[in-house]
Amino acid sequence: MSINNNFKTPIPLQRHINFLKTNYHNNKIIQFDNLIEKRPVVFNKLGYIEKSKNSLHSLSPYVGKIRSDLTKYLIDKYAQKGKYICDPFCGSGTVLLEGWEKGYDVIGIDLNLYAYTLSMGKINPLFSPDLAKEKLEIYNYAVLELKNKISIANMPCWVKSFYHKQTLKEICAWVMILQQNKEYFLTACLMGILHHQRPGFLSYPSSHGAPYLRINKYPKEKYPEMYEYKNVYEKLLKKIQRVFKNVPNFNYTLSREVYFGDSSQDNIINKRVATIITSPPYMKSLTYARDNRLRLWFLGVEDWQELDKIISPSSEYFVNMMKNSFALWKNYQIKNDKCIIIIGDIPINILSSKILLQEIICDIAKPNYHLVEAYEDPIPEEKKMVKGNETIKREIILVLERK
Questions:
Q1: Which residues, other chains included, contact 18 with Cβ-Cβ below 8 Å and sequence gap of 6+?
Q2: Would you identify the CATH topology of the domain 11-112+254-292+301-402?
């Protein structure tokens, strides 16, 4: 028995891969208005932002995620009590988790299976660490029976290079058991300990955000203990204890929905959402699939390159994606509802001119939205997933209002 042999690309992803191949590569979707009005955006100062202490935010790493404290600030300032909050590019689920903690019904959408899994895990945590331990003990019996039936012979060499072979078999068995039982929270916890050089993780010495081995820094001859078999059950149990360190009291009667799909193409939502807060995928500046390729492989997505073409789009594809998004989102909102877009401060080339991304967003949104406020938020080095990345130095927050 081997993992992933019968894997098929999920239908929402395959449909949009086909869309990309038939349209993007034939340059059919690269269509811009003849003139984009260059109207400088005036920035206001952000007020005091309270630090978020919710330990569920550390469930598993995610490149380019929205800051939880900034999300909390935007919800407090703009969300309408008793109404839905939606993040149509929900990524790591930060908006959904903060919205739920604040007492809102929440909806998220993402085309990245890892993002979907992580978001589902964050807004569907188990009630207590004792319940989690009880479930792990039950699943561990099934894992012990399954792991010896798993063959790693046909697994990619790059995946095998990260693990002791017995550890790898156990991880595969755990993923299969947890997915079969739709245990999103436990699956997300497992994704969070897949690779790092610290003792609480499962791989050979490697980086935590994006998977890169650090065998030159930690050679096997000098650090043999870092290359030994790791018991997945024991590591997962300790991970769960860390996750429950600071979990607030949640209202489990609130609606929490996450959809696996493309919010720029699929009319997924059938209800009003008074507040949209989202950070669309950055154009090639962040490579969401490449940086999560090991987690995606265990979840069943082997071809991360095709996924990155969609979720780390070119500037042309991004603009058209946002045009389509605004055209759909207007159907979910009524006059004066807010649509808050968080983007990197990136200039892009349109019609041989360099135009700031915030100006483009405001222009393509204007048939249905107008800008009411804007903020800038510098990104400190310690907050960057990729240290030393100077491509994006600040984030821009655009508060748009439905006309």
A1: none
A2: Rossmann fold (3.40.50)
DSSP string, 205-267: SB-SSS--B-TTTS-TTT-GGGGS---HHHHHHHHHHHHGGG-----TTS-EEEEES-TTT--
Provide the mean pLDDT of the chain: 87
Please spell the DSSP secondary structure of 85-117, one letter per residue.
Answer: EEETT-TTSHHHHHHHHTT--EEEEES-HHHHH
- Total residue count of the chain as it appears in this document: 403
pLDDT confidence band for 43 (50 / 70 / 90): confident
What is the value of pTM for the model shown? 0.89
Percent of the chain clearing pLDDT 70 (strictly above) = 86
Whether the pLDDT of residue 390 is over 80: the answer is no
**Residue 282 near residue 346, CB atoms below 8 Å:** yes
Q: What is Dmax (Cα atoms) for the chain? A: 66
| The pLDDT of residue 126 is above 70 | yes
**Closest CA relative to residue 349, chosen from 26, 23, 36:** 36
Give 278's Cβ-side CA count (13 Å radius).
28
- C-alpha 194 chain-centroid distance: 16
Measured CA distances, 155 to 1, 147, 159, 302 (Å): 12, 15, 7, 10
Rounded to whole angstroms, the Cα distance separating 110 from 93 reads: 10
Alpha-carbon distance of 378 to 218, in angstroms, equals 34
Give the whole-angstrom CA distance, residue 191 versus residue 362.
37
Instruction: State the pLDDT confidence band at 347, using cuts at 50, 70 and 90.
Output: confident
Round to whole Å and give the CA distance between 310 and 317: 8
Domain with CATH 3.40.50.150 in the chain: 11-112+254-292+301-402
Handedness of CA 326, 269, 108, 310 (dihedral sign): negative
Residue-wise pLDDT tens digits, 194-210: 999 999 999 999 999 89
* Start-to-end Cα distance in the chain: 56
